[in-house]
What we know:
Layout lengths: L7 H16 L5 H7 L4 H4 L1 H24 L1 H21 L3 H11 L3 H14 L2 H33 L2 H21 L11 H6 L1 H5 L2 H31 L4 H29 L1 H24 L5 H5 L2 H22 L4 H26 L7 H28 L6
Amino acid sequence: MRTTPPHILTLVLLAGLSALSMNIFLPSLPNMTAFFDTEYRLMQLSVALYLAVNAVLQLFVGPISDKYGRRPVLLGAVALFILATIGCLLTSNVYVFLAFRMGQAVIVAGMVLSRAVVRDTVPQDEAASKIGYVTMGMALVPMLGPAAGGVLDEAFGWQANFAMLLIGGIGVLALIWADLGETARPSDITLLAQFREYPELIRSRRFWGYALVMAFTSGAFFAFLGGAPFVGTNVFGLSPSALGLYFGMTALGYMAGNFVSGRYSVRAGINRMILWGTLIVTAGLAVCLMLFLAGAAHPLAFFGFMTTVGLGNGLVLPNATAGMLSVRPHLAGTASGLGGAIQIGGGAALSALAGAMLVPGWGVFPLLGLMLSTSIASVLAVLFVLHINRIAGDLPGL
């Protein structure tokens, strides 16, 4: 078995495939609704159900990887993702499609364990910086994904998006096999005992603080994922390719936020970066809402301010992740899985809620109201973290 740490590009592509599978087909949702002869609310479950299964799997990925190692879990997960993607391509029944779509969620192991691998290989005071650089590079993939997905849809049909995921899965599987050595020493305790260590994390108020900051900040983004295809098509009348390009604006902000995190987290401290990020998201959404209340009607007035959602997420997520994993360093994989489950589980609920709230005639207001409420909750969560730190002191190196 290889034991050398992976190249950073391997981690970028591994996490990027997980992100790409979440959003490449979003501009195609209206056309997929027509293909399967169903309602948008049912088709939108391809996002919400994916996120829900994604969240549940994260509860198991972390402890299993702490027990058996990162490499075998990643190889198995990518292989299962490839099989589920083939199923999505071959079916013409919406319910069978949704079943295979839920199967694709196994690729979440790439996102969870790429972060754990970083924490395995660098000291905690460098983890936020390296996670920032990894996710900055990763953001390039989902930034280009919806734009490419929209073009592929118009040229070849929605199935072309899943063909791209299939090719990507095969390529990443080969890359993991060749480059990603084992970075964690497999645990000597049983898998059941691994799961019994969850209460150690659950009892940590600081862990909950960081996990909730991640959940609420990314919750605004997941609500956007659930509602933006409807808004772009039914409110602004955008084509799939145009909608894909507008989606890229959010990822552009996310990439910029991750660059700032990678550059300044060690110097500024993770808690300050998290606070700035939550305030940026909240301020951007508040201004966007005020513009539409004043009569704005151009898609740039909506999608342009989604850049601030991406920017704030880029500042918050790598820093909150580093804080969360450093609460109990010996449980890094478990913490990454549990924290990710909380984050993605909340995202699944908000994505489904956004899809259910959006009806013709209400414009962007239900979606903006949901996103703004979630971002305000993220500010309250980081203030809770700061309160705990005042009482108990900062974690070493943070």
